[in-house]
Amino acid sequence: MKNLKLIENKSEIGAGTRGASLGIEALKVASLNQKSDFFSRYDSVSIKDENDLLFQAVETPSAIRIKGIKKVYQRLADQVKEVLIEGDYPLVIAADHASAGGTIAGIKMAYPEKRLGVIWVDAHGDLHSPFTSPTGNVHGMPLATALAEDNEVCKVKEPEEEALSNWNALKNLGGISPKIKAEDLVFFGVRDTEKPEEELMEREGIKNFTVKESREKGIEKAAKEALEKLDNCDIIYLSFDVDSMDSDKVSRGTGTPVPNGFLPEEAQSLIAEIIKSRKVVCFELVEVNPTLDNKGNMMAETAFKILNETAVLIEQMNENE
Prior knowledge:
Radius of gyration: 18 Å
CATH architecture: 3-Layer(aba) Sandwich
CATH superfamily: Ureohydrolase domain
Oligomer: single chain
Distance between the termini: 7 Å
Largest sheet: 8 strands, parallel
Number of helices: 11
Strand order of the largest sheet: 2-1-3-8-7-4-5-6
């Protein structure tokens, strides 16, 4: 039976706001409040971060602190690969979403011959590159690294030489590039994008199940359709950004909150339906930021409930293999 292994990644140098590195501790507080043994139930490992770079001048405005993010990518990828090769199930809890490309790299490094699908539950497309990002925040770029997509046809700036060098290293991490195909990427809840991302999504035919569409179809049917779209994939990575949930109905305890998102029970139901496919080999939860929470620790409390229920489901699936 596979064992579930926690990978804690407190890197927050990819975000534009501060405090996401405290998200994991906020989840631990939530677990105590909910009288859960979650954080003692599973073995865990922490990824060394480069958060000290927050106190240094920015050298690459087109891809802020990308040199440090490259180091985090490599460490995370190596750890994810190790857990998978050992036959276990990595559950990644991360601060900002920047290094999720490292998670994808680690999965692909462990399974280079397998076709990898990605289901990205998020308010944002995270398809920017140093050529297109309006902010230079790398938490808006992880999927572009996995797709090896510069999107130069939508270029709005000329990246610095150092930024490009590190950007190319992210795309080529593990010696596999691209790591996923655009046809093997499915979005849920994306509703806050910029023109370069929108043009890329349209050009590549990337499917986005909006909150409205998911509700009209029903979460179960929408999940089924997403899995059917990824039917040719051998394995799936499921990434859950808490900003996919409604910032007004839950809280604003995340770096880039967006209204009109999923309700917690909808997010939980969606995740469960996807996990039940048995193709998911890695689950990641990101972007809890307690310093921005307008309702105490509500985002972490909500996210932890989803995290715990997901882990229990994964364990049940593993026991029945």
